[in-house]
Amino acid sequence: MDDPYDVLIVGGGMGGLNLAALLVTAGKRVLVLERGQREALGGRAASGRLSGAAVDNGIKGLIMMGAQDEIHRRIGKPLPDNVCEWTNPGKIFVDGAWQDLNELIMRNVGDFIEVYKSSAQELTYEQIDDLNDISIEQFVRERTGNRELIDFFDYLGWLFGGTLPTASDYSAGALFYSIKAQIDATGQMPSMSFWVRNGSGSIATGLIEAIEEGGGEIRTGATVSHIVIENGRAVGVDVEVGDRVVPTQLLDTERIEADVVVSAVAIWDVFNILSEDDLSPWFADRLRHLHRKTLNVATLTYGIADADVDWDDSGQRWVQQGPYSGKPWCASSLRFDDDPSRNEISFWMQLGWWEKPNLHDIREASHKVALRRLFEHFEKDVAFFWPELADKTAWKIRSFGPATIIETPGNVGDKLIDVQAEGVEGLYLVGERTREAKVMGVYGSAQTALAASDRILGELRARQPVRPGQPHRPEGRQPLGSHAFERGVRDPAGHH
Length: 496
What we know:
Largest sheet: 7 strands, mixed
CATH architecture of the largest domain: 3-Layer(bba) Sandwich
Structural class: alpha/beta
CATH superfamily of the largest domain: FAD/NAD(P)-binding domain
Strand content: 15-25%
């Protein structure tokens, strides 16, 4: 090839597309390889369409922090509209009754301020990092014995994601970083959200446009056999070619080379394209430790065609323990794009990697049986609280899949891997669960992409200095590291 690629990115999810758009805008020649088809671009943020409504691939709780906005600003593309119309933080169902969260806080305002001031308000980000390996329950109980307030922080920890049902499962540092970052970005305690018009998959639209308009390439239906590492350096990838005639056929491969190779697949899939034989044993062991620590999410999405359905869509609803499932879950709603009188309601439940059903073992019959049983009980939970809902449902979608690596003590901060693979030159690992990502989901992917683009551009400059007479390739704005958003960048919306 006369003009080789500067960067190869394996994976067309949000992390890969964010990074590709930034690098293409900076003048680099980039190829994105996605094993799925065009509609798979965006990865877990991709959306489908049903009866005029956008249906997300699982629930997308969106955090207003600013990183995704910053990427769209740099590539010159608008972020899709926010269609959230919530007017309050919602309610939680505890001890057999619904509790209004605003009223709960006001009843316990003294204790709330004590916990709030001693965490998100008064601590610096560096001090919050010191809380990464302390649970929320330990932190809150050291400051109050107020059961209602403990329930409230239970809810916050569960809602921000990457956690399990109880506060003891969640990192205090992870939660208070998220709260402080939203206060810095919006000037107020987090009580609203950002829901994307036409579904979360539309976030990817501007990224794809920026990549292709800037001369970057996206190949779909491209299955990467493995990342090629020679003498401690990533040199390219081998991509399967040809048609499979029989299921057991070993396909030929095509070598594609580049100066930098990026794995933008989820960490639980990283060993599908990266051979541990090419890694230092200690680094492979760290990846092995993390890659199964998944938070799995079961989602029920109901399309409501009856405007008279008894549903309060002014805020979210959290059930601390479902009467049939015995598990906590959350509910929220969106308006249909084509008819504001109709709702799309999503209910989501989170499970740990050791439970059945489990993402890693879902092909086993016992896990498939457990998944069917889980949804059966989940739907009974919903009917218990809203008995008329099933009769007014135009359609229903059940989905199950991974959300992130759980943000428990021991799985956040410096316990995570660096965006630059240790021990291998020219190899980067981009996803929302590297240490550059302070939260999970789309926002974490954006943080990681910003940090990775900075380092990759620096490496390319060092390896390919401008020679006399060689045209300069503009690199645009220099990407900010994730901590730029921790210290006062106040763009109004971001995604989680």
